[in-house]
Every structure is written in C-alpha cells, then in structure tokens.
Amino acid sequence: MLSSSSSSPSKLSLPLLPSMASAAGDHQDARLVFVGDPDRSSSPGADVAASNAIRTTKYSLLTFIPRNLFEQFRRVAYIYFLALALLNQIPQLTVFGRQTAFLPLGTVLLLTAIKDAYEDYQRHRSDTAENNRPASVLPLRSQQAASTVRKKWKEIRVGELVRVGANETIPCDMVLLSTSDPTGVAYVQTINLDGESNLKSCYAKLETAALAPEALAGAIIRCEPPNLNIYGFQATIELRGDGPRIPLGPTNIVLRGCDIKNTSWVVGVAVYIGMETKVMLNNSGAPSKRSRLETRMNREIIVLAVIMVGICSLIAISTVIWLHSNRDKLDTLPFYRRKDYSRVPPRDYLYNGLGLEMLFAFLKSIFRFQNFIPISLYISMELSRLMQSFMMTQDESMCHEATGNKLKCRALNINEDLGQIKYVFSDKTGTLTENKMVFQCASINGIDYVCREPLIPGEIAPHPTIVDGQVWRPKVMVNTDRKLLRLLETERDTEAGLYAVSFFLALATCNTIVPQVLDTSDPAVKLIDYQGDSPDEQALVYAAAAYGFVLIERTSGHITIDVLGDRQRCRSRMFSIKTLKGVMLGKLIPCMHRMPLAYLFRFEVLGLHAFDSDRKRMSAVICCPDNSVKLFVKGADSAMFSILDRSFDLEIVSATEMHLHTYSSLGLRTLVIGMRDFNGREFENWKACYNIASTSLSGREDLLGDIAIQVESDLRILGATGIEDKLQQGVPEAIESLRKAGIRVWVLTGDKQETAISIGYSCKLISNNTSQIIINSHSKESCKQSLEDAITMCEKLTISRTQTDGGSTGSAIVSVALIIDGPTLVHILETELEDGLYRVATTCDVVLCCRVAPLQKAGIVALIKKRTNDMTLSIGDGANDVSMIQMADVGIGISGQEGQQAVMASDFAIGQFRFLVPLLLVHGHWNYQRIGYMIIYNFYRNSVVVFLIFWYTFFSAFSLTSPITDASGFLYSAVYTALPTVMVGIYDQDLSHGALLSYPQLYGPGLRDEHYNLKLFVLNMLDSIWQSLVTAFVPFLFYSGTLDDSSLGDIWIVSVVLLVNIHLAMDVFSWNWILLVTLWGVTAIAMGCIVAIDASPSMPGYWAINNLMATKLFWLCLLCILVLALLPRFVVKAFASYLQPDDVQIVREIEKVAKRKHDGALGAPLRSSLDHQQPKS
Amino acid sequence: MNSSSGSAAGPSSGSGDGSAPRRNSKRPKYSKFTQQELPACKPILTPKWVISVFTLVGVIFVPIGIAALMASNNVVEIVDRYDTECIPANMTGDKVAYIQNDDIIKTCTRNLTVPKDMDQPIYVYYQLDNFYQNHRRYVKSRNDAQLKDADQANKTSGCDPEKTTKDGSPIVPCGLIAWSLFNDTYNFTLGNKNLSVNKNGISWKSDRDHKFGKDVYPKNFQNGTLRGGASLDLNKPLNAQEDLIVWMRTAALPTFRKLYGKIHQDLKANDIIMVTLENNYNTYSFNGKKKLVLSTSSWLGGKNDFLGIAYLTIGGLCFFLATAFTVVYLVKPRRRVLLCDTG
C-alpha cells in the first residue's frame, strides 16, 4: 500500500466537513509563490518582502537622534526636566546659566543614547554578518541549470530555489521540495528558534522529492500570508498548471535559523524572506515591567512634588510681600534698582508687576529646587540594575553543572522585586521534576508489571538489533521486568502474550519520535537516540525498545520496527502463524500474520492524529505489514476510559483502573493505551475525510480534530503505563528554604490529583501532619458549599494551632493544605466565589492545584494579584506556563526539556528549580536592600542641597540666589556623589551569601518592606532637613557677617559632599576595595573639582576655596558641621542596633563572633549559636 | 568600629570547589569578584565602638571649645552705630532727604572709648545691615571679564541696569555692585595724634593679582542720573582700588562687615579715639544700619563666642552620650533575640 495521504482526491466532498470546500479554495490574501521565478513571485502586486536582508536595529544613522529622543522622552520625568530647562531660557526666569539648565537632562540623555547606540551597533554588526552569509541558489532559468550560484543571504528572493547542505543554517523560511533522502525526510535542529536541541523531522512531499529541480519550474505554491505561528503552516503546491493541489503543512516547511542535520542536502523554495520569516516576526524584545519599588517610589515623588510646590508657593508669596513692602524704594534700592536710568526715559528693568513677579518667583523656585525630584536617580538605578544583573548571571551557585545553563536576566529593571516575593506559583513537570521520564510500570491485560531489574550497561538486550552487521542499541537503558520479558520471549502465542505484543507495538508506533543513529567508539555498535518533543513518548519508545520493539527508522510514510530480535529467530519462528491465525478469530492480535520474511517490519503510517489538550490523547492509523489497518491510541486515563468499548474486557478495565490509581499514588504519570481494528469500510471513510482535512488550507487543525474524535471510539484497552517523573535535585530542600523564608509555594499542575499529592509529599510540601482540604466539585452550588466548609475548617484548625502554640511550643504544628482541581476552578475563577477561595487559600499553608489548564494557572495568579499587594512569582518550563509567567509580577522560566517558550516569556531564566533559592534569598535580598537604600539615599542627598538653598532664600530677600556655583550645583548630583551610590547599589552586601542561605528567615525584610517605606522616607527627610540646617547655620554663626557668598558656597558644597559621602559610608555594610576606592576616590575628585572651579579668574568666586583653606576657622567650621550633622543619625543607629537589633544585625554579629572564634568556617558555629538562642525567647 | 577582613564564605560556597573537574566552558569563570566574595571589612556598631566614638569626639571637641572661647575672650571689639547719631536733630524726620542732599556737609564726629588694651593690628570694619548684597539681581550685576582685561571693557553683559551711560558707552566697572560702592570715610585721632589707617592689603591678594586688571581704569563711572555710592580714582587701575575689590566680594548675609583698613598701633585701655567720619552712604532709604567696628584678632579671626560654645556643647553632649550608652550597656545587657519568625 502506497502512502495515500499525498495524492488526494480533492474533488471529494463529504457532509462531515462542510467548511472544507471553501477552505481548500483560493484565499483572497493567499500568497502565490512561483517556484523558480522570483520576478513573478515578487511582482508589484504581490505583497512580498523585497529582500532577505534582516534588520534588527532600532535606528539608522538618520533616525537615531529623533527616534532615540522619542523613546527616552516616554519617561514623564524627562519631559518635566525638559520643560524646566526650556522655561529657564526665558530671561525673566533664568536661574541657572542658560546652557547649564540643559546639563543634567543632557547628560542623562547622552549617556542613555550612547548605551542605546552601542547596543544598536552590536545588532547592526550581527545583522550585517548574517545578511552576508553565503547561500547556494539554483538558477532554473539560466543555462547551467544544475549548478548552483553562490549568493549572499540578503540577495535571496521569494520563489528562488535554495540548496542547503548538512550542518548549514537555513537562510529563509522555505518549503522543502527535495532532500538527499529519497523519501524526502530532512532533520532540522531548531535550537536557534526555540532552544530545543532535539532533532525534528521535516518532509518534502513525495511528489516533489522525486523530481529534479528543473522539473519544478512553474509550480505554484499558495500559502498563507506571513504570520508568527512557528508551529503552523498551511499551503498547497500545484506542480503544473491544472495539476492537483498537494497540501503542505508545518512539517513541509523549514524555518530560517534552523540547522540541517543528518541530511546531506535539502532543496527548498523560499516562501517567506527577510523580516517576514517566522523567526523575525517572533523576535520580540524582553518584556518590560516596572519594579514595585519604582512604583512605590512614585508615591514619595508625589509627596516631594507637593512639598516642592509648597516651598515654591511660600517663596512666591514671600517675594511679593517683600516687593510690596519695599514698593516705594525699589526704583533706587541699591541691591534691586528697578529703574534703568541709562534709558531715556528710565524704564523698569526685569520687573513686570506684582502678579507676574509672583508667577516668575514660583517658576524660578521650581527651577532652583528641581533637584528635589532626583533625575540622577533614574540613571543610577538603571546602571546598578544592569551590573546587578551581570553579577547575578555570573553567580556560580546558580549555574547548572550538567547543562552549563547560567541565570539569564531578560528583564533588567525588576531585580529588586526578587527580594519581595510572597507567593511562588510553581509548575510541577519540568520545574519541580526533571522531566526526564523513566518507564516504571506497565499494566498489560490487567496484570501489573513493575520494571525493576536494570540492564547492565554493556549487556546486550535480549534481542539485539542487527542492521548491516552492526548492533544498534537504544541509547538509554530502561529497567525491565523479567516476567514480562519471559512472557514476550516464550509465551508469545498465548492471549496474554499477544496483548503484550500489541501493547508494545502501540508504544513503538503511536508517537512522533525520530530515531537518530549515533556512532560509538566501537564501529560494530551504534546507538539509537530517540528524538522527540515529548519526554513521555521518549520514555515509552525506549521502554518498547528495551522489550525488543526497537523503532529504527521513521520517514514521512512509514516507520520500521525491529520486532523481538534477530533474523534467525524471526525466520524460524515466523511468529507461529498458525497460532496467530487462531487468535485472529478473536480479533485480538495485531498484524503479524503474513509477515514478510524481512527481520525488520515496515509499518505504514497512514495518519497521525496529533495530541491536543482538548482530547488529551493521540492516535496513529497504522497499516501493518499484513495490510491490516489498526488505530493505536494513547492518552490520559480520563480521556481514554470514556471512549473504551465497555462491552467486554470489563475485568481488565477495572484492574487497569486499579493499577492506575496505584501508579498515580506513587507519583507516576500514567497513560492508557488502546487499540481498534479498522474494517475496510471504516477505513475508506476515514481516509476520505482525513485526506480532505489534511489538504484544507484553513481550519485544518479543527477538521483533523473532529475526525480524530470520530474515529477514536470503541477502543479495546491494551493496558496502561506508569512513568516516573524524577524530582529535580534539591527540590525538597529548596521548597523548605522558601517556606522558611515566609514565601508561600503553590503548585499548579496539569497532572492528576493523586500525582500532585504524591509529588507534594516527596517535595515535603505536605507531611503526615498536614490536614488536607480537598475540593472537587462539579457544580457551582457544591463549590460554594465546599468553600464554606473549607473556611470553617480552616478557622478551626488555625484556632487549634494558636492554642497549641500557646500551650507547648514543642508539639508538631499542624499545617493545612488545600487541594483543588481544574474542573472545580472553572466554577470558581472569575465568579463571586473567588473571594472564598482566596480566603481559604491564604489561610492554608500549602495549595496544590491539579488538572489545571494553562489559562487557569494565570487565573490563579491573577486571583492573588488582584486581592493583595504581595508580590507573585511564577516559575515554569513549558508552553503551558507562559500565561502564568506573564501574569505574575516576576516570571521565571526553566530552561529545561520542554523547549524555550517559557524562557522566552520570562523575566529570568534558570536551569533548575533549586536555583530559585539563591536567586530570591541571596540576590533578591541584596538587590532589594540595595535599590531600596539607593532610592532613599538619593532623595536624601538631593534634598539636603535643596533645603540648604531654601534656608538661604530667607537671607537673600527670597531672590533664590545660590552661593554654590552653577557648575558645582550641577556636578553635585552628576559627579560628586553619583558614582558611590551606584557602586554601593551594585556591590554592598548586608550579609554574606552563606548566611543568607543558612537563615532563610532573613528574607523577611523584603516581605515586610523594611528597606523602603514611608517611615524610612520621612525619617530620612527629617534627617536631611537637620543636616541642611546644620550646614546652613553653622557657617553663619561661626563667621558672623565676615563671609562673602563665594566662600559660603564653597563651605557649603565641601561640607555637603563630605556629609553625603560619609553618610553613605556609615551605611555601607561591607567594605571591599571597590567601594573603598570609589567612595573616597570620588570624594577626592569632588574636592579637586571644587578647587579647580575656583581657579578660574572669570568666576566671581575666584580662589575663594584656597583663601578659606588657609584659615583655621574653616577647618573648625567643617568639623563642627560634619559632627553635628551626623550626630543624630549615628546616635539613632547606635542605640537602635543595640536595643532593637533586626535580624540582619543579629546575624551580622553572629557571623562576626563565629568568625573570630573559628576564623573561616562559619556554618556550624552559626547554626549552633542560633539554636542556642531560640529557646530563650 | 569593629572590623575584620577576609571573605565570609558561607557553607554553600564550598560546593563549587568539589565539582571542579566537571566544570565546562560555559560555566562562569570562578573568581571572588564574580562570586561577590571579595574580601571585605564588615563594620559593626558594637557598644565598645560606639562608646569610643562618642568619647573620642568629646575629647577632641571640649579642648577646642575651651581654646576657642579663650581666644574669643582675648579679642577686643568696639562697635559703634553711627547712622542714627550722625543726623542733625532737625532732619531725623526725613533721613533720606538729608542723605540725598549734596549741599549738606555730612561730616560727623564720634568718640570711642577703648575698653581693654588692643594690640596691633587693629582692624577697622564697616558693618551694614539690611543690605542684601546677596540679592540675585545684585549678585549677577557684574562682568568679570571686563574687570580683568582692558581689551574687554566693552563687555557689559549681565550688568543691567547699570551697563552703559545714556549714550550707550560702556561703564567700567559696570553693574550694580560697583555702582553701589560704599563711600563713608573714617579718620581716627588718638588725643591729638592722627591714627593712620592702612588701606593696603585689605583685599584678597588673589583678587588683586588675577581678578582685577592692572591696566583697567574706570570709565564713565558714577556719571549717571543716580549716584549709587563712591566714585573711583580715574587714574588708578582697578587692582589698586582695594575698597572696590573688597566691596565686590559680595557678602553672604544681609548683615555684613567689610574691612576698611588696618591700624598698626597698639591702643591702651580707656584711650579715647575720635572718629571723624563722612556719613555719605545712603542706608536710610532701606532702614539699614551702619556701624563702625574696631577689632583685634586672634588665631580664629574676630570675636566669636559661638564657636567655643558650640564645640563645648557638642563635646559635652558626646560625653553624656558615651555615659548614657555605657549605662544602658551595663544596666541592660544585650538580650539574645532570635530571628523573627516571618511565617
């Protein structure tokens, strides 16, 4: 039987598929590709990209300035500063020199622009390199048709035939026409596309695969317009004018960026090029989120703005009062002199009447105090976060040894959120578990087999597979069950044996696995590596191989399986055809009679109904070597039991059900295997529908799904499998740490309840002391009832817990776990019951949600996000976790087995679940503390200067004079004090790595908002007012009138710079050489700048600082300012850290004591000293 | 502060070492920098350190305070407000009219008694009050380029409203500051002997050498409708006009003293100095006071009790805090506190 799927009778229409006729017809916007005719393919009418060149740069030379400015000015604060600088150009309002007004904003803009330009240049370089890569094109129209022409990638056009060799990269999205394999198979690695390193198979249609390239000229491909669905493609190809339209699907297209493997060449026709390729359309940047601190910071900025408006209004009103009370004298007042007598008649100079003067005074004071809202804070935060991210990616304790996967920071601006996570929503498969599936148990024909005995590596399987004299062996050895082996070996003819044979045939055939043959050091031995999307399938196929059903080859039309051993045995036994025939009457046994004499069996794959999440099963229509047609189905138990033919095999079904229950309580993943024989009429019917559906241009998946549902019915059960999903290393410990840190860990999984609970046990989420509240309801009313019950139960348990706590602390604390399933959540999410669920879930210590759909995962995250301010984190590895990852405040992707979709959607990507602990408890803790401190400190450091000048207005008739030179005023926040806070934001550590991991409780400050809150803000503002008062008035009183304003300015700027930097130094926790050098280096540079500014004779303050420094009074004044200004802070710090030490302070002291005693190792003494303390409280 | 150095490698960091052979190329290169384990000093505010810091500050501040108070006590200062006294009794009702009337001779005589012996040099200051030399309009009304360089005499930008004469020729020195130059003069006689006032070296040397040009001469100065203050000697370069240089160092506060000159002669207690002054400068229009100050100096400058008091107070406070902390430390020894249970 030839593969019939390709030559389809397109005229056939069936009532089953009403939408098909239109779908197969011409689409209005379908793209027409004329094979070998690029000119026609990209004729003006066709909406086709002009070249295969790609451009990932944001800017060109011309557009850089406007576009970059536009991007930057999306920050509202920048517009505020620009408006200020512009207003400052109005003569009446000039406060600073006109140019200096632009300096702060200009510097920030310039720095960001340089950063952007550099990044863009890097992108440009990689684009150019990519665009100029060589490609081979087959010119069909030219004379030397067969030879290829070298072209650059960017010169490839739609419709051209491109030849790609082994291990080369595909330059554009192209439809495969032929490959080096006569069956048209090509293997591609999509690691650049989605990060999956396994091979995927693509197929050229048999019709085209056989043709020479020249014969393809004139063929027309109709395909969908470019879209970003990597896993979907619908098109048809017409070989000659009116020939049949051959359907093309996702397996017929190879995408730009993939590598050709195991295939010496492929030829394809370019359909999507350049920016239209799927990989480019999918190229979206990292998600942009705003950290919570930054959002919180806005509140304080508003407070500051209100204070500022208050101050400015006060000054405006005072100015007017002053002007009004001096109104008679203003004309001649020596220090005001309104009249300009050099004009005839004399006229007012810079005076516009009281009203306008008031307005101008208001605006001028806004300019003068604009630093109150620190512009430099934004850039400091960005720089710090950038370096923090870099340091995080370098952390060795988050590097996965096996794969070398480091932490990846995809979002750069939410580092500090990692320190405030309250809820962790975790996926199970691939996140808590390794997603390396190991076949553990099988239930066949109602008999349970447990596969325990390992095959010793090197020992050859019972039935070595020999191809061309070489032994082919599966790469992974699977434990087997001797009893089952014996059954297959010796009792193949019995009914149980036949069941087993069918069972393993189903495992070997009903999948999408591609075997890949690898060389070994021994030329006589080759390894078969099963490549596929689903680790479950891999495990099943390896298991089948271990039992002697070795999948050897897969092409687009057939698969080859070595069944139970060598040629001799096959030939001699011939599978006892007579006995088989006898059994055939019972319609049981698969396709073994009339088996060809080959020792390898070819099975035609007539059709494959792919897995989808609605059906939760997949099936394959297989034509066995005896020409009988079977349907093998495997799927989740819930999806399978409903479609079983329950008319007989009842004991088997119930036995299997029992086994399934046992398996899931062991934490195994279960699948049920079923089978159905097709009779002739059924088969023809199915074939017709299937062909139409698979050639349909649109809605193909729905149509195929419908057919699958129709055909997957009346199955007989073959058995069930139990696959162990191994826990990742360190998961229980990680979860324990997280929970000790006060983080709530919720597990959201698509698995069955029993599996979820068993994983809960093995993760130590649930213990024997845990009381479980299980809610499984299937109507809204019962949901409501169970929720109410749950609430009462929770309350009872909580009360009893508090009572126990009060009585004896020693007794085990009862924890409460809520277990709820997806069908129940349907009735709860987005209804009024959500509140009830929220109340129950937040009282419980553990929440397990099982059988949840991807969107429900997001729904649960949203449930928490909507109702609390607590930070949420989602961690997952698969495509089904994407919605949850994007919903949570922080999304973490695990770069694991299930591809890169989760990583692409995430903010951070890690290799293993356990790395969450250092990520949150160490780096999160650090980053939160650093950024929180940085914001507070930046507010403080700018407001000191602002208040300083504010006090001075009372002594300068509210005229907003600043004794500090404009240059110093600008350099103050840009140079004098900027770098130290950035470096402290990167390198300071309140506690060491080790201490933070030893005491997860130290995560608490982040949860309690201890490093950034309104109280801290107010205290620091008060401190800044005190410090500015001291700085302002000490010189007034020390010098009593003999001081000139330049000298005052110098005293002030020197004091403030020292003050602010010493203030920072007092708060640094850990002095390493970087901090030492920056902090004191910058202070020295600042002093140098102040002296340098005063060395210019054109400045009014020429040499003031030098004259000052020559007097003793200056030094005494400075000393007095510094000590008096910092005294309150020091006193508060000293008394607070002695009388009310926080956790961090205590552990710092413990560390110090431990260090002194043991000089080095601190783990053991730390622990013991902590244990020692606990009973005392 | 208590400190120790060396990296505080926790127990977990040891795991990296055991796995060295399996390290592959993708792994981050291990270094103390990338692992954020640089040797660091981690200061902790232990009671010992807190008490030492407070004591140290006290020990430094109290002696300085005492020394400063003593220095301040040794300074002899005579302050005489004369703006009210130097008005004829018949004109106290309209002081502005008095001062603006050029026909009235403004000479006035004051007698000052020396309270204690005054050693030379005795500094002569004038002190103005309520005069906002730091007003924004005023401070900016100058052009430093013009003051320094004869070639840039035409540069008068920023000097409004005293920039040019009516016919547009530039004023040197331009601007409100120069225009309002103080013009009271003082002559001192002790008994019948004239006390000479040395007016050289009253300004900053740096200003004379680099800021005010030695070839820049006043032009069009005080020629306008409204005279602001003193005129300048047209034949002296600006760097020799020290009164102007002193005046142009604008004061930081509305009450300020500026150096008028120095008397190089010792004065005895109860000496009576007769001051003959010309009360020209108009402070009446803005209710400003004018005072004449004679003062000796110490290593700290003029008379200033505040400095000593401030240092003594801070020093005392720190001693008190040191004691208080010691008491707290002894009375309430640190209770062992366990880590807050956040769960």
Polypeptide structure, described:
The complex is a heterodimer of chains A (1177) and B (343). Chain A is an alpha+beta fold and 1177 residues long. Among the domains of chain A are: 31-35 and 45-52 and 156-282, Calcium-transporting ATPase, cytoplasmic transduction domain A (Distorted Sandwich), CATH 2.70.150.10; 396-431 and 729-798 and 814-919, HAD superfamily/HAD-like (Rossmann fold, 3-Layer(aba) Sandwich); 433-567 and 600-724, Calcium-transporting ATPase, cytoplasmic domain N, CATH 3.40.1110.10; 951-1007 and 1030-1156, no CATH class. Helix content of chain A is 45%, strand content 17%. In chain A, strands 16-37-36-35-17-31-34-33-32 form a 9-stranded mixed sheet, with helices on both faces. In chain A, strands 19-18-30-29-28-27-26-25-24 form a 9-stranded antiparallel sheet, with helices on both faces. Chain A is elongated. Chain B is of the alpha+beta class. Chain B has 2 domains: 45-75 and 301-329; 76-296, no CATH class. Helices cover 27% and strands 15% of the residues of chain B. Chain B has 9 helices and 9 strands. Chain B has helices spanning 15-18, 47-74, 95-100, 136-139, 144-148, 176-179, 205-211, 242-248, 305-331, and strands spanning 77-81, 107-113, 122-128, 185-190, 193-195, 197-198, 256-263, 272-278, 290-295. Chain B has a 5-stranded antiparallel sheet with strand order 1-9-3-7-6. In chain B, strands 2-8-4-5 form a 4-stranded antiparallel sheet, with no helix packed on it. In chain B, helix 2 packs antiparallel against helix 9 (305-331). Mean pLDDT of chain B is 85; it is low at 1-28 and 337-343. Classes of the chains: A alpha+beta (1177), B alpha+beta (343). Chain A: Its EC number is 7.6.2.1. Chain A: Belongs to the cation transport ATPase (P-type) (TC 3.A.3) family. Type IV subfamily. Chain A: It comes from Musa balbisiana (Banana). Chain A: The chain crosses the membrane at residues 301-323, 939-958, 970-987, 1017-1039, 1051-1066, 1073-1093, 1113-1132. Chain A: The active site is at residue 427. Chain B: It is a multi-pass membrane protein.
